[in-house]
Amino acid sequence: MDRERVRGVGAILNRTWAPVILRALDNGPLTFTELIEALHDRAEPHISERMCSKTLRALHQEALIERRPGPAARGHQYALTPLGTEFIEEVGGFVDDWLARHPMFPPSA
């Protein structure tokens, strides 16, 4: 196994917001505003616009998402690339399966 590639996957998963953003985009393309709203509905604490922008740039550089023109006068849309779709299906499926088998995770303090 190529260590550098494994570290790259680990880096994506280690970014607090990357998996959450990828999951939100799994439902289809979103504008920046729609994405922020979707993330606020899903997670506490809420992501800042600055952190969302930074994470989107990183995911774009890793070819997991694409930025494309959105509907008229609504800015850009962000969408999963085929690589991003495959990533979230594989990794998200693994996480979902693991969590289903361990309903008490994380343990309460």
UniProtKB/TrEMBL annotation:
<keyword id="KW-0238">DNA-binding</keyword>
<keyword id="KW-0805">Transcription regulation</keyword>
<dbReference type="Pfam" id="PF01638">
    <property type="entry name" value="HxlR"/>
</dbReference>
<protein>
    <submittedName>
        <fullName>Helix-turn-helix domain-containing protein</fullName>
    </submittedName>
</protein>
<keyword id="KW-0804">Transcription</keyword>
<feature type="domain" description="HTH hxlR-type">
    <location>
        <begin position="13"/>
        <end position="92"/>
    </location>
</feature>
<dbReference type="InterPro" id="IPR002577">
    <property type="entry name" value="HTH_HxlR"/>
</dbReference>
<dbReference type="InterPro" id="IPR036388">
    <property type="entry name" value="WH-like_DNA-bd_sf"/>
</dbReference>
<dbReference type="InterPro" id="IPR036390">
    <property type="entry name" value="WH_DNA-bd_sf"/>
</dbReference>
